[in-house]
Amino acid sequence: MSNQKKRNFQIEAFKHRVVVDPKYADKTWQILERAIHQIYNQDASGLSFEELYRNAYNMVLHKFGEKLYTGFIVTMTAHLKEKSKLIEAAQGGSFLEELNKKWNEHNKALEMIRDILMYMDRTYIESTKKTHVHPMGLSLWRDNVVHFTKIHTRLLNTLLDLVQKERTGEVIDRGLMRNVIKMFMDLGESVYQEDFEKPFLDASSEFYKVESQEFIESCDCGDYLKKAEKRLTEEIDRVGHYLDPKSEEKITSVVEKEMIANHMQRLVHMDNSGLVYMLLHDKYEDLGRMYNLFRRVTNGLLTVRDVMTSHLREMGKQLVTDPEKSKDPVEFVQRLLDERDKYDKVISTAFGNDKTFQNALNSSFEYFINLNARSPEFISLFVDDKLRKGIKGIVDVDVEVILDKVMMLFRYLQEKDVFEKYYKQHLAKRLLSGKTVSDDAERSLIVKLKTECGYQFTSKLEGMFTDMKTSEDTMRGFYGSHPELSEGPTLIVQVLTTGSWPTQPAVPCNLPAEVSVLCEKFRSYYLGTHTGRRLTWQTNMGTADIKAVFGKGQKHELNVSTFQMCVLMLFNNADRLSYKEIEQATEIPASDLKRCLQSLACVKGKNVIKKEPMSKDIGEEDSFYVNEKFTSKFYKVKIGTVVAQKETEPEKQETRQRVEEDRKPQIEAAIVRIMKSRKILDHNNIIAEVTKQLQPRFLANPTEIKKRIEALIERDFLERDSTDRKLYRYLA
Amino acid sequence: MDRIDHLFNHYANRSSSHLIDPEGIEELCSNLEVPHTDVRILMLAWKMKAEKQGYFTLEEWRRALKAMRADTISKLKKALPELEKEVRRPSNFADFYVYAFRYCLTEEKQKSIDIETICQLLDIVLGSTFRAQVDYFIDYLKIQNDYKVINMDQWLGFYRFCNEISFPDMSNYNPELAWPLILDNFFEWMREKQA
């Protein structure tokens, strides 16, 4: 019962009495040897596995493990030598098939033999640390078959040959390839790599070297890239079908190197088909392909990006410095917007919105936009054009889109303060002539500018809008309190707060009596409600609508400037007037008067006045009379121009000078701000900091900064350090 | 002491106030056999720490002559070479250079000196040691239009320039550093001439 030790059941199959017979081992081995032969000869069906296993077991048990092991090796080796002769004898295509067949047979045999010798595997081999049966079987195959000199090279060449055939378009037995190559893999990673993979990669490298050279001589860029892509896909496919997955990266590297990396420059720069051609002709597919292929190689995308950047810069530079293109500012800016749209589309469609390409696009635009000093002015004129009434078919949404695009260009400007100056001028003209397409659109742009540049940029602009609104209310009040004035000429006054509007010197001018009476009434009304203010009439900014009747009774309404009105009204009391008389009566300064008379007398279709002599220019001896024969198919004739125009050369100089003057205090303020907080700073750092602080408005010139520093030294805001003259010190 | 005062009175007796005035200085110069515009007179003024150009006070006179151990004209004359050596010592020259500029600020609150005077002053003060630099710079000052006057900062800048920058190659001059702008412009002008 409990005393009885439990005995483990052991099924000992067919245990018979073992007699240590010296010949025992030999006899047993012979049985096994014969069995191995039969197995190899595909004649194993009559064998009893169980009997063979027992024999092997007994040999090991009776300490004949070594004999068994050695015998196994010798026998197998002999067989394999024989097999390799057979394989070697195979001709042509059957070589590989024979090899494959023998390999499969060997594997099957090896498995069976391993099973029979399992006990030896687990005991004798374990303790003696010898190679196990299965790996030994593989090594024997490797040494006697694969590395058999007559097979080794031939095998490799056959395989490479097949790959080559497949590359040239022939169909090969992929299954066979897979099996043979798997054989290499089964024999061990180093066998695969040494005996197959490395030579394969070398041969592929050669192949692609030659092929890429051929292609590059005969194909254009787009076609070449298509071919390269095709080859790449093929190789990946090949790996998937009959190579070790680890080879994929290696073979694709070879293709990338030979087909792309080695020819990168030549491809990108190819005449009439390379990158520039593709960009110019919107070849999105080709560009996308180039992007995908080049990103695989070192510096591939860098190369593409560099060529794109230099092309953009060159194109941009030509665009902005071409005098033809600067004739029409609106065209100029539209062209810039179109180019930007175009390249934006390229980057989003073909380059996957790659940020580095976006940055290259932006930096290129920033570079060339600032090459033309008139860019800020032109952008303002473009905006002016879009915000004026009379653009057919423009809807609010469209205007928004355009303004957003304009903001993009604005960001590229280095001289944002110049833009501000022009924008203010143009906005003033728009507001005063009542020609803005919508108040909302104007305000929307101001909000965008404010977001971009801060409150100070736009605070004065907003003042302009307020004045317009307030003036409307004032007019209502004026006419409300003077009902008797509803008869007679109508006066519309805009009261502008100095400081919010671009400064204009007041120009003297004698208004016609009817008008000046009204003006006086307004003045007293206004000053009555606003004490302590001073009003100055800006006669050079006003307009007038006057009704005229000509010789044959033609009636027209003329829309003119205030100056022109003054001149025309004179002809109510005189048929003919000389220049000097007009000058005296109106007191308008000579240059303004000449311009005014020119627009009244010398412009075809608008010459309500005639001049003698009929020369092009206004001379001080000229005389003028009404053009009784004046005709126009329109009732309303517009003569005065208050439209914003591209500045003339002298005007441009003047504006530029004003901008430079405005910059001086800004630079000084920046210097003082920086020095106040740092107390001591060296020269180079001051320049850098000041430039950085002013960068949102304009690019500060180091020489100008130096001048301002010296001015501040003279005014005792700063001093040079007495020992180190590179340093400046803030003087409280 | 008496002899020094006595000597002073000799030159001061022409003016109504008890000072040696410009006329007196002229006489002094001829007695010393030194030209009126000679740098040694300026050096004498420096030694005196004279405050007002063209005038010497008794205190200033005493200061210099006592230090120079001169109580007669001939002794004063003999002491001049020694004075020059003293001023030209590097430790003193910078001070003398600054003094020379201040000495020419004749009006109250004046901070700058007109170009013509500066040219003369440069010649007197630096002419013997930095002949080439002074000559070229004077040429430049006369033809440029950016500056009508020179201030102390620019004056000192030029001295630094003479001492630190090899001339006429100016290979170690860098206009991007803290040199006064007028020297940057001078540098550009020189470069254009050399091209």
Describe this protein's structure.
The complex is a heterodimer of chains A (732) and B (195). The mean pLDDT of chain A is 88. Chain A is elongated, with a radius of gyration of 48 Å. Chain A has a three-stranded mixed beta sheet. Chain A has a three-stranded antiparallel beta sheet with strand order 3-5-4. In chain A, 64% of the residues lie in helices and 5% in strands. In chain A, strand 1 and strand 2 form a beta hairpin. Chain A starts with 21 loop residues before the first helix and ends with a strand. Helices cover 64% and strands 3% of the residues of chain B. The model of chain B has no long low-confidence stretch (mean pLDDT 91). The termini of chain B are far apart. Chain B has 195 residues and is mainly alpha-helical. Chain B is built from ten helices and two strands; from the N terminus they run H-H-H-H-H-H-E-H-H-E-H-H. The radius of gyration of chain B is 19 Å and the shape is elongated. Chains A and B meet through helix 29 and helix 30 of A and loops of B.
